[in-house]
Amino acid sequence: MRDCFEVRDTDAGGRIGELTVPRADATVETPALLPVINPNLDTLSPRRLATEFGAEILITNSYIIHGDDDLRERALEEGLHELLDFPGAIMTDSGSFQLSEYGSIDVTTEEILAFQREIGSDIATPVDIPTPPDVSRERAESDLETTQDRLEIADAADTGEMLVSAPVQGSTYPALRERAGRHADGTGLDVFPVGAVVPLMNDYRYDDMIDVVAAAKRGLGADAPVHLFGAGHPMMFALAVAMGCDLFDSAAYALYARDDRYLTVRGTRALEDLEYLPCSCAVCTDHSPADLRGLPDRERESELAAHNLHVTFAEIRRIKQAIRAGNLLELVEQRARAHPTMLDGYRTLLDHAAQLERSDPVSKGSFFYTSHESARRPEVVRHHDRLTRLSVPDRLLLTEGDAPRGDEFDDAWRVEPPFGPFPRALSKSYPLTAEVPARTDRAALAAAADGVARLVETNPETAVTLAHRGWPADVRDRLPDGIALVDLTAADRNRNR
Ligand SMILES: [Zn+2]
């Protein structure tokens, strides 16, 4: 186990964990949000972040502090916590972002790590190379080699109690991200940011973002705390948490406020377009949209930033509660409806259902089938795998109806979309207790048919009869040959005649 991180609870790929930050003498519960503080601009003061918003940790940029004579002197003299007046843990970035924006920076990994330690950072960052999406594979590979060299320098450096992050790069190449994850995991470094995903988010490429995170996670161990670097919009937190992200940083709350933009969990709204404020934070209960629009610039920016941050922290708490309750994927399904590209992200998440299944609890409170995507959830994948291990009798009836009398069959199992067949004894166990709409959709029937197919293919000697309620031809086409079919709806019609 990694000393600094302990997983307490899981749901799908999401987890509630504890990140121990020894230098701050603090334990941060994850998923956690790190508000970004620009040391030159105080949209909301760090002290206020702690007292009013409950921020346990924030992130600031050591490269900006290093490059400013006044800030550097004060940070070296007073220490970072005094400089910012923040009582919690402080993570520092290294200038990698400036490197990617401007092409060069004037510090080395050794220098900036030593500086971060000197000013009292609790979690430091080496100078990695944030490789943008869609570059050539050659470039992504050569950048990654440089990043890996920097991680090894950081690993060998004397950093004392300070935690050090190990960014995972590799552009949009899943194989490189996985390799990068494995390399980072093999170092003695502590926190694992998945880097250079901001361009993906800016272009609403949530599907690619999920593929990148899934690949990094395959390389990293299950005990690695994962930071989605630069992701601050609350709309996508549930999705990213479900794929296994533990830490987020938000500059968005302040940047959007500067542009008069109002964050919601269903997307961003322009203040000028709002006639009502769909939020009950202090800002939104004390003001109407017109009030806010009438405020002087600085004040309006600060009020909007406060609202944006309230919404952001509230979503983190909602996600934690969903993990505890075991309904994180239900929350992801809701969020996925906010924007078509979010739905792409969710569908991509389900492409990784087998990977998520490993951390998904065997038993939870409830499974709500709320969209046809539900048919691809990890619980369905797990049930289909389980079907290959159940023992079956010689003559088996699988039925959506009642168990028949008589001795035509040795046993009669239930069939429930989207899971497919199961012995009656399992009826009361998760996830077969799922709440499924009476108006079943095609995806649930198809998944049930796939379950039947798995069972039949694993047990070629068994004589299987399937009694279904009017499954359409394209669903029946998924069933293997040699299975006897009875349409219960036809039998019902005959009985009623
Ligand atoms: Zn509000």
TrEMBL record:
Ranges for region Disordered: 124-146
What keywords is this UniProt entry annotated with?
Glycosyltransferase, Metal-binding, Transferase, tRNA processing, Zinc
Where along the chain is the active site annotated?
A: D93 (nucleophile)
For activity, the cofactor(s) needed are: Zn(2+)
Query: Locations of Basic and acidic residues compositional bias?
Result: 135-146
Annotated residues for binding of substrate: D128, A196
Boundaries of every tRNA-guanine(15) transglycosylase-like domain copy: 13-340
List the record's Gene Ontology CC terms alphabetically: cytoplasm
The Enzyme Commission number assigned here is 2.4.2.48
* The organism's place on the tree of life at top rank: Archaea
GO MF, one term, reads: pentosyltransferase activity
What is written in the cofactor note of this entry? Answer: Binds 1 zinc ion per subunit.
Please state the pathway this protein functions in, per its UniProt record: tRNA modification; archaeosine-tRNA biosynthesis
Q: What class of enzyme is it?
A: transferase
> What is one GO biological process annotated to this record?
tRNA wobble guanine modification
Q: Which reaction does it catalyse?
A: guanosine(15) in tRNA + 7-cyano-7-carbaguanine = 7-cyano-7-carbaguanosine(15) in tRNA + guanine
The residues the record assigns to binding Zn(2+) are: C279, C281, C284
Family named by the database record: Belongs to the archaeosine tRNA-ribosyltransferase family.
What does this protein do, in the record's words? Exchanges the guanine residue with 7-cyano-7-deazaguanine (preQ0) at position 15 in the dihydrouridine loop (D-loop) of archaeal tRNAs.
Name assigned to this protein: tRNA-guanine(15) transglycosylase
Query: Source gene?
Result: tgtA
